[in-house]
Amino acid sequence: MRRVEKILVVASPVGVFVLWEILAYLGWIDVRILPPPSSVAITMVVMFGEEGLLDHTAATLFRFFIGMAVGVVPGVLIGLTMGIFRWFRAFTNPLVALFYPIPRIALFPLVLILVGINETSNVIMIALGPFFTMLISAMYSVLNIDRIYRDVAENFETGPRHLYTMVTLPAAMPTLMGGLRISVGLGLLGTVAVEFLVGESGLGHVIWNSWQVLSLQRSMAGLVVSAIVGFAVYLSMDLLERYLVPWQKKTAPV
Amino acid sequence: MPPESDDPAVTSGGRSDPAVGIRICGLNKSFDGPEGELVALAEIDLGVREGEFLCIVGPSGCGKTTLLRILAGLEPQFGGSVDFTVDTDGKPLQSMVFQEQGVFPWLTVLENAAYGLTVRHVPKDRCRAQARDYLRKLGLSAFEAAYPSQLSGGMRQRVNLARAFVNDPAVLLMDEPLGALDEQTKMLVQTDLLRLWEGSNKTVLFITHSLDEAIVLGDRVAVMSNRPGRIKTILDIDLPRPRDALELRNNERFLHLRRQVWDSLREEVVSLESDENRAPVAAGAAP
């Protein structure tokens, strides 16, 4: 049964590519609009060799990781604090409610004016999505901790440091990991969006620029590379989860 | 309202008993429920003797757990008084053994067992040594690096017991710790618990809904009335120790005591049933 599952996991993406290739070969889809995988792959190899696609990929990854760090770390810290201290929650919750629902991309012009057209404003834009996501999931991860764990901690007269490291943080960790998975998606989205708008480098720039000169194969190649990047980042979340939440039963989607 | 009990056999905490370890006087507690104030406990008077194993049984919803939570310091608001006069000898006063899900899933068996000592800043080596000692007594040595999710329910509950015993308090408060276990496992863990307790000088308050369990474990069994909870009667369990949870159930004296406890509990259960169903229920036979 598990072997069958493993085959199915590989079969579904491969099947899509094979179908796409066959339909293009048969002429059922317009290859000018949707170039077949084989020709995209060739273009990709050429671009890695001659057009610095690797540098663009590195630029995207760099922005992404910096943006994630700038968003996730303060988001988690502020969110946990909001979950733990009632007064802090009362104080900050209205601000979150005010800023969270604003479409973040709409803040870009404001950020550009305040910070300038530079890498810092890019990083801020990328960080916003993960920041709010982690803040909210961290807050609820604390608020939803089963009461029995608080009771145990209280009954054993747990001091603040041990309460934080041995109860609150580990109890919150599974929910935080869920938030991190969503944040990763938002971070990648933000990175590519920023590169569309102001980038002179990065996969978003490649995709958008190639589209503007109607080089769809190049655009598609950029898309495929960013998909691979996203896939790799998502898989690395499994490794991170195994490390940070070792007590949970293995939940490997792939 | 449930029938009042003026049974003179009710042992009240007011009696001057030199060996009283916990004196509970006029304890009452109410909650704000959706339909107004809900009186959970009304005028509980109870003297727990130092070093005894006292079991409390009562119909569901009678406030047994609330009583224990008050003693554990988890319900700061209540009326009446609770005095721990037990001699702690430098040990922690009390630790609670929670229901099965109270074991921390993110700590290993060893870390769970050592938790009480760790948060009291006992040096790590001593934490581990003392935790390992109890894990060995409970047959968990091979599992000290495992997480609770990898254990069976009975083993998880032994970890829960270990955590409280390793903390070495003067009083152990147990809130139906074996309620979720199947009957066979329950008897095995009961035997383990008796083995740990006998000769430990610890005062135990043990809440259960199982008459058998109360009689197998307890020196005395306190029967609580239907809500609002009162101590209805207290029975002495004069079965010799050390006891064997598996053997005891065929003992004639055990069966006699069981009948006595049931007779006391039955009218409470019946009145609870008729309260809930708003219909008269025929007096039930012993289960």
Structure description:
The complex is a heterodimer of chains A (254) and B (287). Chain A has 254 residues and is mainly alpha-helical. Chain A has helices at 2-25, 37-50, 53-84, 86-99, 108-115, 119-143, 147-155, 160-198, 203-212, 216-244. The longest helix of chain A is centred in the last third of the chain and has 39 residues, at 160-198. Chain A starts with a helix and ends in a 10-residue tail after the last helix. The model of chain A has no long low-confidence stretch (mean pLDDT 90). In chain B, the strands form 2 sheets. A 6-stranded mixed sheet of chain B has the order 5-6-7-3-8-9, sandwiched between helices. In chain B, helix 5 (153-167) packs parallel to helix 6 and helix 7 runs antiparallel to helix 8. Chain B contains 8 helices and 9 strands. By secondary structure, chain B is of the alpha/beta class. The interface between A and B is medium-sized, with 23 and 25 residues.
Q: What's the structural blueprint in terms of helices and strands?
A:
The complex is a heterodimer of chains A (254) and B (287).
Chain A lengths: L1 H24 L11 H14 L2 H32 L1 H14 L8 H8 L3 H25 L3 H9 L4 H39 L4 H10 L3 H29 L10
Helix pairs in contact in A: 2-10, 3-4, 3-6, 3-8, 3-9, 5-6, 6-8, 8-9, 8-10, 9-10
Chain B lengths: L19 E14 L2 E14 L3 E5 L6 H8 L7 E6 L9 E4 L11 H5 L1 H5 L4 H14 L15 H15 L3 E5 L7 H15 L5 E5 L3 H7 L2 E5 L6 E6 L15 H26 L10
Helix pairs in contact in B: 4-5, 5-6, 7-8
